[in-house]
Amino acid sequence: MTVSGKQHFGRFHEEIRQFDVTGKTLLVPEMAPFASRLLAASFHAVGVNALLLETYKGLALGKEFTSGKECFPCQITLGDILYFLRGEKERLGAAFSADNYVYFLPEADGPCRFGMYNKMQRLVLDRFEEFRDVPITYLSTRNSYSAAGIMPAEVSAIFRKLSYVNVIISDIFDRIVWRVRPYELRPGLTDSFMEKALLAMVAEVEQNGASLEFKRLFDILEDTASTAKTFIDTRQPRRPLIGIIGEIYVRTHHESNQHIVRVLEQFGAEVVVASVGEWINYIIYDMAREHERHMKLALLKLDFESFRGILNNWIPTQIQKYYQMVRQRQAYSRALKYIDIHKDHGIAVLEKRLDRDRLFSFDIGTESALSIGAAMEQLHEGYNGVANVYPFTCMPSAVCTAVLKPLLNKMLMPYINVPYDGGIQPNRDIALRTFVYQAKQHLESRTSGKRNGRAAKCHIKP
User: Fold this and answer.
1) Which of 175, 364, 382, 383 could be a cystine partner for 378, CB 3.0 to 4.6 Å?
2) pLDDT in tens, 245-287
3) What is the DSSP code (8-state) at residue 107?
4) Could you say which DSSP state residue 183 is in?
5) Domain with CATH 3.40.50 in the chain
């Protein structure tokens, strides 16, 4: 790769934009494995040639072209795209054409650095003459990840519905794994079966997903749940239940969190990670909430023209929110017929929990609201420990730590912060093993009825 020093900020507008990606190869970074593969299948179903990038192999490249002050997921995804493009350049030689590819990197509003990833990575790609013509496209939280900007309108509506259902299916697949694998009759049985189930789901999505006939997808989901249940060794007692919250990328990306779920399972825990669907639901919920706030302000000002305009935006937002709620319930109900996986939290439930306990506010926003709310719900639902998993120096997760650590300690709930930056910390396994031991004690105290009254009631005084 040839490095050039030529850069200019006009490229942010020229080569970070939304445009029809039909006919291009869309390069998609991996996050949660099930969700990422089903997202790629959703793109394929509507005629977009999406390619899921190999992940973590290019981490050294990502770190080479960053200062170390960036968020860890930024380094990982930058390394992934550089590793792929360098490999394609070497494989194709003179036949390599940068404008055949489009790099897909979503963005978000708010204080999180995630909103600046694509700008920073544009600057890095522009340092290589051979990669300058690789455009970056995105979906954004500004319009709740609408795909209308990157594909024809009629196709984007299909993609949005299909991709949402696939996100929920991927969440349920994850929860089936986490419910079964700690108790499986034979090591490796769950993982090998779920890989086959995923391949069947991907094939169905690619072949028939664009029809939006979800019955077949839900049938595969139901069959997967019913079969996976038979892998559980019912002679084993239930393990302490650990909830993982934190930054969405690191908590769901296995390599970046050094396979923390498997590690906790090896130490004797059962684990549930906050879902990908939680974030998608939060975005549409927050958008509807913002519309409602502006409508109230317009009424106070007697500005009826503005009120009507906001109302016209609020109605489709409410419809989308209701659609997501219905599809999520449908999917979970099919799996819950056979296996007692843990349900996902409703976003309104989390907001009520925060308001009731006066711990945080959705007015502040960010993932902090979700993580703090989810941790408190887990406390009330009988979990035995909470792990906050996040990139080193993550601001929203630091806020979570400030609120949750003293509070959960007061409530006698085991809690641990687990930051990651790609480094190997020799004492991390010791800390996690100790944390699981504390969770086991918490479970035993609950089971024996010896927990003190304050913790048993889980009551928080403002």
Assistant:
1) 383
2) 999 999 999 999 999 999 999 999 999 999 999 999 999 999 9
3) B
4) G
5) 11-151, 237-275+344-454
pLDDT of 150 over the 70 cut: yes
CA distances from 399 to 35, 246, 262, 365, 374 (A): 27, 11, 27, 11, 14
**Phi, psi at residue 365, to the nearest 5°?**
75, -155
Q: Other CB atoms closer than 10 Å to residue 121's CB: what's the count? A: 23
DSSP 8-state code for residue 3: B
Segment 77-123, tens digit of pLDDT: 999 999 999 999 999 999 999 999 999 998 877 667 777 788 899 99
Contacts (Cβ under 8 Å, ≥6 apart) of 218: 330, 331, 334
CATH of the domain spanning 237-275+344-454 = 3.40.50
Query: Is the distance from CB of 35 to CB of 167 less than 8 angstroms?
Result: yes
Alpha-carbon gap, residue 10 to 134, rounded angstroms: 15
- Read off the pTM: 0.92
Tell me the residue type at 402.
A
Give the containing element (helix H, strand E) for 375: helix 366-380
- 137 contacts: CB under 8 Å, gap ≥ 6: 16, 17, 18, 19, 21, 26, 102, 103, 104, 105, 149, 150
Reported as a single tens digit per residue, the pLDDT across 426-445 is 899 999 999 999 999 999 99
Residue of 401, 409, 419 lying closest to 442 (CA atoms): 409
- 11-151 domain in CATH 3.40.50? yes
Please work out, in degrees rounded to the nearest 5, the angle formed at the alpha carbon of residue 15 by the alpha carbons of 11 and 18.
Answer: 135
